[in-house]
Amino acid sequence: MNIYERLIEDHGKQRGMAAGLAKTEGDSAERKRLFGEFYKELEAHAAAEEQTFYAELLGLADGQEKSRHSVAEHKTASDLLKELEKTDMSSSGWLQKFKKLKHEVEHHVDEEEKEVFPLARKLISAARANELGADFEKRKQAELEELAECA
Hints:
This protein has helices at 3-22, 29-58, 64-86, 92-123, 126-150. By secondary structure, the chain is mostly helical. It has one domain. Helix 1 packs antiparallel against helix 2 and helix 2 (29-58) runs antiparallel to helix 5. The relative contact order is 0.18.
């Protein structure tokens, strides 16, 4: 699976997780569980994506601007996740922050799929895209294992 297919697979998972989490209420066990899974998914995905896909694009002059923008969006999402982790899940503030995060994630993945991937396809060979897909998979698994150890 090439890097684009692999990232799109994760994007679909993230959209679904966000939608499911948005349907939860209060300080429920379901909200806690889903948020924990969503947190790990987003953090592992972003780290692996930066270490593989964006590292490759940053090495190419024409890929630097989009890469920097996307990495900055990862930081915004990560900061929101950390704020949510510290916020009482039963408060209206939690839901407001979560809705902001959900919007940020949806904006980011849409932008990647519509703007970044078409550019990257012009800059990265198909063979290299396949290698990056495998590299991403290994890196993401390592990130998930590391996050599980910290939990």
